[in-house]
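Bumping my old thread because nobody answered last time. Still need a sequence for this structure:
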């Protein structure tokens, strides 16, 4: 039987009464947690306090810092799913925020390319999905879709992207895709949480107080013994400790806890969520390769292949950064099981090194050779990221999970925030703040 890290921590850190109190405590200082905190500060009233607790010494250093920085259109996700709704809303909020607050971004657009005739039906299905009535501002006009997609012949695709190979026989152009400076977004949200003069409300309404605490991890969460809140025990200075050593430990009473801890979020649910309602974490690694060489000199958009039968993966695609550098990735590499993640939620850290074997480089080169002519010697390992998946490999589509159970009022779980988590983040913040206002504060006033 696997002994979980969460259970061991609860044994090592016995219950400790709180020494102070806050209204909201957000666990996790990635882009999703910061977006939730910013929304709570702005939307739940001037007399309420919001604390963000981030275990690393800097914000946004795990999932947020290790992704492709793509602003996704929302075209891939099932109608009505949280990923579809929050990605599209978040995309629009993100473009608006970048424009207003001078965060680096570029609306590049992207094309999805078919390199064989049997892939063309996939493009037609994707285009039909984009024209679903729920996406149209004008029901009689498919071009009014919030995820508008234009079908192109192979020649039309090469007119847009001259470096595409002659194998490309059709494509789908999706103009709403882009790229963003993820660290710039993190910095902007940090300012918004803590500085009342940054990004003030257009109405001039006063906001709540926000505080961010870094280098502090949550070691256990308990129901308040008397009352409706939660007692969150935290440890500061934990990263440099030896086996059995403890840092500075403090407990805080929080009226609402938002678990936005990403790769550590499932572990934090233990001791709070009943065993039969627990989900499992299946971390998946994605590797990226940078490229310098021939065959990409005129590329100006992101380029995605049609995915293979592997439904967990959209294919190894070309992305750009804001300096115009080209990367390929991510791939999909299974690095462990749910049991591994339960025993040690941080086991993924030993897998962070980007793959650099000749076989891996050759595989990347082959995966893009159908739609671009590149020189494999120009590929080099760049970085890798870990996705906090809550479905096992091969399970197919898995939606975001946002839970606020009636039997654990005030404890909000944000689980499975893989792609398009970055794009969706601002909409997630608004969604969670509205949910807390409805489920927590309105019910208290009735």
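Sorry it took so long. Here it is:
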């Amino acid at each position: 039987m696997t002994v979980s890290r969460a259970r061991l921590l609860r044994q090592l850190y016995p219950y400790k009464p709180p020494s102070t109190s806050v209204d909201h405590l957000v666990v996790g200082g990635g882009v999703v947690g910061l977006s939730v905190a910013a929304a709570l500060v702005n939307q739940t009233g001037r007399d309420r306090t919001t604390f963000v607790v981030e275990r690393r010494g800097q914000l946004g250093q795990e999932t947020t810092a290790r992704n492709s920085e793509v602003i996704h259109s929302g075209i891939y996700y099932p109608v009505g799913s949280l990923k579809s709704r929050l990605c599209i809303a978040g995309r629009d909020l993100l473009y608006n925020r970048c424009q207003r607050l001078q965060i680096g971004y570029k609306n590049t657009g992207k094309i999805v390319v078919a390199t064989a005739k049997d892939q063309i039906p996939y493009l037609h299905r994707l285009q039909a999905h984009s024209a679903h009535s729920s996406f149209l501002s004008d029901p009689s006009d498919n071009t009014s879709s919030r995820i508008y997609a234009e079908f192109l012949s192979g020649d039309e695709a090469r007119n847009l992207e001259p470096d595409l190979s002659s194998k490309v026989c059709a494509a789908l152009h999706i103009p709403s895709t882009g790229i963003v400076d993820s660290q710039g977004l993190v910095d902007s949200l940090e300012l918004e949480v803590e500085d009342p003069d940054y990004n003030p409300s257009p109405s001039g309404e006063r906001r709540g107080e926000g505080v961010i605490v870094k280098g502090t991890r949550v070691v256990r969460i308990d129901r308040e013994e008397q009352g409706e809140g939660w007692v969150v025990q935290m440890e500061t200075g934990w990263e440099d400790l030896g086996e059995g050593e403890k840092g500075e430990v403090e407990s805080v009473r929080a009226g609402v806890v938002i678990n936005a801890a990403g790769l550590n979020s499932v572990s934090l649910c233990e001791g709070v969520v009943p065993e039969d309602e627990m989900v499992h974490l299946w971390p998946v690694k994605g590797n990226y390769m940078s490229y310098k060489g021939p065959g990409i000199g005129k590329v100006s958009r992101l380029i995605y292949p049609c995915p293979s039968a592997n439904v967990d993966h959209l294919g190894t695609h070309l992305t750009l950064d804001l300096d115009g550098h080209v990367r390929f990735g991510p791939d999909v590499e299974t690095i462990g099981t749910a049991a591994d993640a339960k025993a040690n939620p941080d086991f993924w850290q030993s897998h962070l090194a980007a793959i650099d074997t000749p076989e891996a480089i050759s595989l990347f080169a082959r995966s893009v050779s159908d739609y671009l002519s590149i020189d494999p010697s120009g590929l080099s390992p760049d970085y890798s990221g870990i996705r906090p998946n809550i479905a096992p490999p091969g399970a197919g589509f898995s939606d975001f999970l946002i839970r606020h159970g009636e039997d654990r009022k005030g404890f909000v779980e944000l689980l499975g925030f893989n792609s398009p988590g970055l794009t969706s983040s601002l909409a997630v913040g608004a969604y969670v703040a509205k949910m807390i206002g409805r489920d927590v504060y309105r019910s208290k006033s009735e």
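Residues 421-445 form the longest helix (25 residues). Let me know if any region looks off to you.
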